[in-house]
């Protein structure tokens, strides 16, 4: 995206995309691997306890001649973390400190009480990208999001800083134990704002269930139905979907109010 006159920020503004998502060229994989990744992604939503062996068996029953080595590589590429402790865990860095989980038994009853964040794999017509999102747990409001073809801590931190600039700071910030979130770069940004850090217990799918519900909605209501032809096309389509999700999509748990109503109206009342 180098240009002799326009800065990267100016180019992003012209294209109408996030400055924090500089890499909009999808990562490529073979047609077979993309088929396998699509099947794995959908199956894992319903069976988050499926490790490499079980998923390999499932794919073989569907007629795919795959071995565990291939499925393990796809799990790693998709950043999939099974919900029980396992030998080959996520991409967590053993040298990084893992913070305790602070949400167990906590009554989350107001906006900016707890934010949660995660990264997911998004299939496209040719290749795939990663999507990072931050939500307010009480209202389910998507505070900020971005897409990229890599999962580095700097990208996540920039999206975090943008969310803080737009919406202030939460009391608690919850993630899993992925290396992006345990990095000094990311945790340092949280500490500098006096935000308490919470991390999911290893192998516990329910700890960050709030954002898992967002991913299910994003994929089944948009990404699977509208596989994009390129990163910029995906960004623009997802931008419209997130606007719909925040401003129009009601949540049954909150008397069919939208995330926007819950996030902003209660703050005004307070």
Give the number of DSSP strands.
5
Through-space gap between termini: 44 Å
According to CATH, the homologous superfamily is Ribonuclease H-like superfamily/Ribonuclease H
The total of helices stands at 10
Shape: globular
Helix content: 40-55%
| Side-by-side strand order of the widest sheet | 3-2-1-4-5
Structural class: alpha/beta
| CATH fold type | Nucleotidyltransferase, domain 5
In total, the number of domains comes to 1
Question: How would you describe this protein?
Answer:
- 34% of the residues are buried.
- Residues 85-90 have low confidence and may be disordered.
- The protein has ten helices and five strands; from the N terminus they run ααααβββαβααβααα.
- The chain starts with 7 loop residues before the first helix and ends with a helix.
- A five-stranded mixed sheet has the order 3-2-1-4-5, sandwiched between helices.
- It has a single domain (1-270), classed as Nucleotidyltransferase, domain 5 (2-Layer Sandwich).
- It has helices spanning 8-15, 31-46, 52-61, 68-77, 153-167, 179-182, 184-191, 209-223, 231-247, 259-269; strands spanning 114-123, 128-136, 142-148, 172-175, 196-199.
- With 270 residues, the protein is of the alpha/beta class.
- α3 (52-61) crosses α4 (68-77).
- A hairpin with a 5-residue loop joins β2 and β3.
- It is 42% helix and 13% strand.
Write the layout of secondary structure elements.
Layout: H1 8-15, H2 31-46, H3 52-61, H4 68-77, E1 114-123, E2 128-136, E3 142-148, H5 153-167, E4 172-175, H6 179-182, H7 184-191, E5 196-199, H8 209-223, H9 231-247, H10 259-269
Parallel strand pairs: 1-4, 4-5
Antiparallel strand pairs: 1-2, 2-3
